[in-house]
Amino acid sequence: VLSARLLMAEIYYVGVDVGTGSVRAALVSRAGVLRSTAQEPISIWEPQADHYVQSSTEIWEKCCTVVKNLKESCWNKAAHFFDLPDFLSWKATGCLTRSLCTLVCKWTYCPPEGWDATFWTSIGLEDLLENNFSKIGSVTCPPGSPLGDGLTQEAAADLGLDPGTAVGASLIDAHAGGLGVLGADVQGFDVPCDDQPITSRMAMICGTSTCHMAISERPLFVPGVWGPCLSAMVPGMWLNEGGQSATGRLVSPRPLTQDCNIYSYLNSHLRVMADSDSAVDLLGSNLHVWPDFHGNRSPLADPTLKGMVIGLSLSQTLDDLALLYLATLQALALGTLHILETMKEAGHDIRTLFLCGGLSKNTLFVQIHANATGLPVVLPDQTEAVLIGAAVLGACASQDYSSIQRRASDLFYERKFKVFHRLFAHQREYQALMDH
Predict the structure, then answer these.
(1) Least CB-packed of 80, 235, 257, 358 within 10 Å?
(2) Is residue 160 packed enough to be buried (19+ CB in 10 Å), middle (13-18) or exposed (0-12)?
């Protein structure tokens, strides 16, 4: 267990050195600390005086051998391999049960069948099949399921809580954000998802990258979108996850003063340039951004794509900065529209967007998404949706509630939400802009 803890705590690198008389390999930590070494001799032949010959084939074989001694000293000593959410729940409870969220979304686990032994064998890791896959997870459960007997004595002391406090099976952070907003009560706001099943909603977790989370009662296969993943966010439901890479990085906010950031400053400047909120979209008619500077995650699924800007001039005024910022927001919103259209073609019926994360605090970003998609956007009045979703897991694990769905529903009936409707008067103008 200590070896597993050490391996999960750090990233390691293998260095190979081929010398005159031997091949050596070393396991080095990110901090540059040498953890383990292995060495094998290289044969040297002298067919005649002062003439030396070595075998390149043997050198390669020795390289492979020393990298495999490293395996015996490190890999074979590891008791378990965890994704971070499962590692934290194991530290808290001592329970080795893995969350379906991590195993289905980030590994190769497919419920109800489980692990695919042929995959691990094909990549040379057949040793992970031993003891019913005990090293990577032989017991699984849906998110929010109670783990073990709750907090161990040691973990409780570290956290300042009572031993036995219930701990729920974990979620990946973006999935916790999705859970934290999808159960919102929007009665009285006259939005299309009112009185409709939760499958009519999409959660957008807008941070450094943006994740588009939607669930369905049956598996829907969407080109370029991850999934479908059973019980990966809501137990018993299938999850599809689209995404955009480096969205927050494209419009990363930097404080101008203590009370003003670049978002609010440029938003205000754009309104001045347009003379009204309604005409801001039209300012971007001659400047266009392709936002895939870090590749396209969905729905093109092409990591080799690069970004592009069309319509630049030699001018470098504040107006030019504001227009480039606007064009970037519009590009991101149209990327979301592309994901939505692809998911709808595959069978999703999404009628309302629910946003959380840093970019959702930017009202222009939100409004442009409403304009581009033609859908209302719901924002929670509490901005920490990921923490809310994590708390739902704990509430479910405590068995105060019968299910995640019930807890999320009751929690959100006690909260209010702001709704940003698309401005219908601008639909024709925006459509004309898109056509142009």
Answers:
(1) 257
(2) exposed
Cα 253-259-263 angle, rounded to 5 deg? 30
**For 55-92, what is each residue's pLDDT tens digit?**
888 777 877 777 767 666 667 778 899 888 898 899 99
CA-to-CA distance for 146 and 10, rounded, in angstroms? 28
Dmax (CA) of the chain = 95
pTM over 0.90: no
pLDDT per position as a tens digit, 380-419: 877 778 888 888 888 888 887 666 655 454 444 334 455 6
Distance CA 429, CA 367 (A): 15
Q: 82 lies in a domain?
A: no
What lies within 8 Å, CB to CB, of 231 at 6+ separation is: 100, 101, 104, 111, 142, 143, 237
Q: Hunting for tokens 């930017």 — which residue is that? A: 362
Phi, psi values for residue 410, rounded to 5°: -65, -40
Report the CATH number that the domain containing residue 324 is assigned in CATH: 3.30.420.40
**Local structure of 146: helix, strand or coil:** strand
How many structural domains does the chain have? 1
Domain presence at residue 371: yes
Domain holding 316, by residue range, is: 192-375+406-435
Average predicted confidence (pLDDT) for the chain: 84
> Within a domain: residue 332?
yes
Which of 377, 391, 408, 400 is CA-nearest to residue 185?
A: 408
User: Is residue 358 domain-resident?
Assistant: yes
